[in-house]
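Input sequence (331 aa), recorded before submission:
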Amino acid sequence: MQVGYIAAAAGIAFLVSSLVFGRLSDMHGRMRYIRLGLLLTAISYLTQIFAGSPVALMAARGSVGFALGINSSVIMAYTYENQRQVGSFISYGALGWLIGALTALVVKDYTALFIISAIVAFAAFLVSLLLVEKATGHMQVARFPVALIKADYRIYLGFFLRQLGGMAIWTVWPLYQTSIGATKVWIALMEVTNMVGQIVFMRLMERFNPARMFQGGLLLSVIIFIAYGLANRYWQIIPIQIFLALAYSSLFVGALSYLLKHHPEYGTTSGLMNSANALSGVLGPFLGGAISQTWGYATLMYVGAGTALLGLLASRGLKVKTAPATAADRS
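Predicted structure, token format:
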């Protein structure tokens, strides 16, 4: 239970900071918040070394989540503002997860890992000092962007529901794989398959219709989660993981491309997407733990498929808009 609360603290902090600083970056510019976020990330990683109790660890993880929330939305907005694409940028996130996992396998000592993480974050901060922000007009954004949410609630709700089911599954994912015979090596191989797939697929998604990619990712997620429930041997998961990478790449890149192409509030829309993801990360573990303990892993997989299906139904009526917004719309 304490682990759940610690994870929830990080998720809630990420949710709040991603939304708040994404909005602020639309109003005041990106670079100051990018540098602030990277510097705070380096510091917050180090605070975990001194966490001597569950409460202290909760505070430390909350500070990590808060700092990462600043980075996630503002850097995404900065990238789209300068390159008009997000697929390749997001793929580097999957690459980072892969390198981080491999580093943890080699190093294993928590203190050393926290120090390495802090050094990498500080190096990113130093690199950010070389970046230049384009002179663009800033805008006024509502403190809570109800209009943006209402305009594209099909995206936000559909994404949240799919991620809720996914996060519930990932909570017990290693235990589920062990129950069907997977060893630690096989579990790691399945994770690598997913990450490598995302690195490849995310770079390809942006050339397609974003609305169709988003809905395709939802539909494929339903099929994948059902397939998890039907699997009774660990080796059956490997090909499913390839399709999982395709589904998530299509879902995430499709959703972000759709939103960023049609709203000039790049930071706020990125923050809303990240907040929806973080909220699913807070609620999903409790859902996954409760269902798996009561009805078993297979039932959880079908429940995950059901939430993804609800997300697909919520996205009905989603259409590509004919008059996309640009930075020129800023006042």
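Checked by second reader. The two ends are 48 Å apart (CA to CA).
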